[in-house]
Amino acid sequence: MKFGPQKGHVACIFDNFFKDFGLVLIALIVSLVSGDMDLLSENVGVLVIVLLAPVLRVVGWLTTTYAVDEEKLLIKSGLFTRNELEVPLSTITTVDFSQNIFHQIFGVYKLNIDNNANIADGQTKVHMTLKKDDAAAVRSLLMKGRQGMDGSNFAAEQDETSLPHREEGTRYQVETSDVLLMGLLKSKLLFLLELFGAIAVIANLLPADIFESGIMDRLIEKIAEMGATPAVLITIAVLFVTGSLCGMIGSFIRYYGFKILDNGEAVKIEYGLLNRKTYTIAKKKISGVFYEQSALMRIAKVGILNLMAVGYGAGSDEDASEEAILFPLLKENQLTEVIGKILPEMQAVEAYQKPEPKALRYFFIRFSVFFALAVLAGSFFLPKVDDFFQGAWVLGALFLMYRLGACVMAYLTAGAYGNLQHFSFCYGGYKKMRVFVKTSMIESIESVGSRWKRKRGVMDINIGCLAPGGEATQIVDNLPESTFNELKEYLIY
C-alpha cells in the first residue's frame, strides 16, 4: 500500500455540522432568549433523534479506514456489517477539495472522489477528511495512478510551481459585484423554499403564547379588508424582495472569491467563504456547458455559464443544491468567445434551426395552460363563496396571460443545430437555456411525437449524453423533422 490503511481525521464528525446540529442550536437559542428552558425538556424525543446522526458519524469514523495502492482506492467500513469498496483509479473522474469552517479550524481538507458509478444515484459515496499533508499525498497517488492509463487526469490540480514546462494558463477572477448580481437576478424559488423551511422550524419551536397575543388575528383582519387581488399582489412583491435579498446573501457566502484557472488541459475552480471548495476537471471529462438565464437575466443580457462534467455540481451529497458554475455572471456578447477559449470544440457556432410557424399551436398544448384556464374558471366562482374573492378573476386572467406568454417565449426560444464537433440546443420560456454538448459525448438521439404531429412534420427531439443526471437528457420541443434527420447523421460515423 502506498497510503494507509488509515482512519480519517476526527473533524469528519463535523462535516455537516449545521445540518446535524441546526435544530438543537435553534432550540437552545430560542430557550435562552425566551428564558424558558422547558422547551428543551419538552422536545427531548426530537432532540434524541436529531443527535442520532452525529452519533452515527462517530461510529463511522471509528470503523472506517482508507488505503491507496498503484491500482485502486480501498475503503473498509462498518461495525456489525463489514463493507469493502474498491474503486479502480482508472475510473475516477474527479477529485476535489472542500473546507467548511470547522475544517479550516482543524487545518484539514475533505476530498470528494467521484466516478460514474458512484454518482449514478445523485450522491457521492467516497469522502475522505484528512490532514493537509495526507490529503495532498492521497491526491498525488490518485493522479499518478491515472497518469498513463488514459492521460486525462487532473493536470491542473498539481501545484503550478511543480510544472516548470507548462504555461500557467489563463486566470479569471470574478468580481464580488458579479456574484451579488447573480444572486439578485437568478430564480428566487430555491431561496424562498429554504427560507420557508427555516421559518417553519423556528415557528415550531417558539412558545405557543406568542401566537395568542392577537397579532396574527389583526394581520388576518387586515388581509381580509384588502381583498384577494391586492393581498396576492402584495405577497408576490414581498416574496420577490425577500427572495432577492436571500439570493444575494446566499450567493455571496457560497461563491465568494470565485476564481477560474484554465491551463489548456484542465479547468480549476475555487470559491467559497465559509465552505471553501476547489474543483479540478480535465477537459477530456467535460461533456459541455449550458448558459442559463432567468427572466431578469434576459432583460439584463447576462447569464450563468455552467459546466456539464460528471462529479462537479449536483453530484455531491455534501450540498445537493450545489450548481456546476463555470462563470457566475457572463454577458451574452461574451458567451461565444469564452466557450471557444475554454472548449475549442465549441468554436464553430452555427445558426439554430427553429420551429416552423405551423408548430406554434403545439406549444400551447401543455398542462400549465389547462391549469391556468381552470384557475380562471374557478376565480369566477369564488366570489359566490366569500366576498374576500371579489375581483379574483383579475388574478386568474393575469395568471393565464403569464402562462400563454411563456408558451410564446418557448416557441421563439426553441432551436437546435449540430456538427461534427458539438451540438447545441436552446429551449425555455421566460427562463432560457442554451446547451452546448460535444458530439463525442452524445450517446443517443430520439424523436417523440403523436401521429397527428408527425403527419405535419413536427416532433420533439431528445438527446442523451454522458453528463450528470440532471443534464444527461436534453429535450427541445416541436422542431421540424428535417432537423432531426440532420442531427442524427452526425452521430453515424
Walk me through what this model shows.
This protein is α+β, with helices and mostly antiparallel strands and 493 residues long. The chain has four domains: 3-153, PH-domain like (Roll), CATH 2.30.29; 176-255, no CATH class; 259-355 and 414-489, no CATH class; 357-410. It is 40% helix and 26% strand. It has helices at 17-34, 38-42, 44-50, 52-63, 101-106, 132-146, 176-185, 189-205, 215-226, 228-255, 295-300, 335-342, 367-381, 392-413, 451-455, 481-489; strands at residues 3-6, 65-68, 72-77, 83-88, 92-99, 108-115, 126-131, 170-173, 259-262, 266-271, 276-282, 286-293, 302-309, 325-331, 415-418, 422-427, 432-438, 442-448, 458-465, 473-480. The strands form four sheets. A seven-stranded antiparallel β-sheet has the order 7-6-5-11-10-9-8. β16 (422-427) and β17 form a beta hairpin. The radius of gyration is 26 Å and the shape is globular.
Helical residue percent band: 25-40%
Shape: globular
Give me the count of strands.
20
Cα radius of gyration in angstroms: 26 Å
Oligomeric state of the chains present here: single chain
Give the terminus-to-terminus CA distance: 44 Å
Number of domains: 4
Largest sheet: 7 strands, antiparallel
Strand order of the largest sheet: 7-6-5-11-10-9-8
Q: Mean pLDDT, rounded to whole units? A: 81
